[in-house]
Design brief:
The chain is mainly α. The protein is 76% helix and 0% strand.
Length: 288
Amino acid sequence: MRPLTKQILLYLFLVFLFSALPYYLFIHTGHIGVGNGMGVALVMWCPAFAALATCRLLRIDAATLGWNWRPIRYVAWAYFIPVLYALPVYLSTWTLIRGSFAFNEFANSLAAAFGFPSWPRATALFLAIPCYATLGVIRSTAVALGEEIGWRGFLLPRLVERTGFTLGCLLSGCIWAAWHYPGLLFADYNSGTKPAFALTCFTLMVIADSYILGWLRLKSGSLWTAAILHASHNLFIQAIFDRITAPVGRALYVTTEFGFGLVLSIGACAIYFWTRRNELPAPRAVTA
């Protein structure tokens, strides 16, 4: 068996093995929030545990995972890209679907949480959202890093070296999407749309995002770009934009990670980065 193939297969075996426990908890309870959110944190760190275990078992240098921060400009791009691809989707929804813009309800909940119920809008705009955009992303990175050590730190460079950028990102995206399916199909990791629709949109969105994440990871040589983009995506979409959007009309079929809006916007970004694949450095050996 070729060294890269052995590494990839062992990693995939371990990541699905390690993920079995948290997914059992999700399915058993029907909720991904099991354990006050600790179940989500655990499953998101299973790819990292699998990557580090594979490195240990096969005596691979963990430096190949891409720990460096430089060049920092790619980390900055990673922070802003999710806002750029998500905001047009939500602005269009709020404009075209009457009653979908629910900023007042969002602001009221934040004002109560921060202790200023009499100034909801000011609290949301000048205190809560800035905290989300800074401290929230840091906290989100702490869990997203677990996935990215595995998916983009370990798996993607090996797939790309084995199959090339286009197929490597496609394969990593398909695997990444399938890894989410137990929570989506057998627990409450969905927005409330029809399962087949949600599954299709989520899968296409994840595959498209894999090209953006993959390009940044390989161009920068740093897994931190993927971790920051992943964290920024989760934070701005799930904690801010989704919460500002009321589930009226067809809003859920356009927004969230299970609607077609992000499929289109992330897909457009993915095509842009795919056209720049020739800028990527030649794949380097990651077998040692």
